[in-house]
Amino acid sequence: MLKELNPLLHSQLRLAVMSILLSVDEADFVYLKEQTNATAGNLSVQLDKLSEAGYIEVEKSFVGKKPRTVCRMTSTGREAMAEYVEALRGYLTGI
Amino acid sequence: MEEKKLSEQESLELISQMIRSTRKNMEVGSGNQFLYWGYFTAALSVLLFLLVYYTGDARWSIGWFSMFLFWGFMLRMQRKETSSVITYTDRAILQVWKVIGSLFVLTVVIMSLLAFHYGGVNFSLMLPLSLLYSGIGVSITGIIIRSRLVMWSPLVGFCFAIYMLMAYTLHQAVTIDWYLYFGLSFVVMMVLPGHYLNRKARNVC
């Protein structure tokens, strides 16, 4: 029986964000927007969903007068990604 | 990037593509910190050597404490320029240098306390200790970023540090030539690796 893919991660933008955060310690909103070519509004909505699920931590601060949003993956997010990749492997190898 | 249903294959490709693109722009300007510190220290050592040599006044050696002012200046500059992304490598290197920095502060504090208690202490010991502390920091940085040149470049500094420490045990006087050895060590362990890292980063991008 194939494991069901996590619907929260099985979306292009959310998966892209999670993949980026998997390979760095932290990334800010601007960086994520550039890397994913997403619109600010869409990215913001998807970050909220990931944050609500406890997959990422979102920290809002100010650098001078500019607002800055920094995202980090949580251990829950890391486990979810590991399970997701494992499930994907199952699908691809047909186990 | 739009919301769309992904196939399993597309999902895996997306994950590897994002990880690849993130790794690509990690190393730009990675040698700058080494260059700033290397050039500053080399210039300072030559300047202090010339001042002490031509005036015959050893009090100029107090100028070594300007390295702490430079450190403060660098920290201020770093706070101004926030990086969009911090990698695990960046974080590890930052922590290593925090420990090395604390070691410098701790050494000066203990030396100052001893100077206060005994009414005087020889701060020249800071030269070999600084070479050892900085050299260990550079070497660990080299190990983290997997660069052999960076990893081994402090060897020259280590040799000078051992020579200086041995001079104390042999009761030899501290000479101002040590300033030049100190500067030369920083050129080898920071300026050369700094240029090497920046050239490497340019070639990658």
Main attributes of the structure:
heterodimer; A: 95 residues; alpha+beta; Arc Repressor Mutant, subunit A; three-stranded antiparallel beta sheet; 4 helices; 3 strands; 55% helix; 20% strand; elongated; B: 205 residues; mainly alpha; 8 helices
Shape of chain A: elongated
Overall radius of gyration of chain A: 14 Å
Helix amount of chain A, in percent? 40-55%
Low-confidence stretches of chain A: none
**Beta-strand residue fraction of chain A:** 15-25%
Classified by CATH, the class of chain A is: Mainly Alpha
CATH superfamily caption of chain A = Winged helix-like DNA-binding domain superfamily/Winged helix DNA-binding domain
The low-confidence runs of chain B, each spanning 5 or more residues with pLDDT under 50, are none
Write the element-wise H/E pattern of chain A from the N-terminal end onward. Answer: HEHHEEH
The domain tally of chain A reads 1
- Helical/strand content category of chain B: mainly alpha
How many strand units of chain A?
3
Strand content of chain B: under 5%
Would you mind describing this structure in some detail?
The complex is a heterodimer of chains A (95) and B (205). Chain A has helices spanning 12-23, 29-36, 40-52, 75-93; strands at 26-28, 56-63, 66-73. Chain A has 95 residues and is α+β, with helices and mostly antiparallel strands. Chain A has one domain: Orthogonal Bundle (Arc Repressor Mutant, subunit A). Chain A has a 3-stranded antiparallel sheet with strand order 1-3-2. The termini of chain A are close together. In chain B, helix 5 (126-144) packs parallel to helix 8. The mean pLDDT of chain B is 88. The interface between A and B is medium-sized, with 30 and 26 residues.
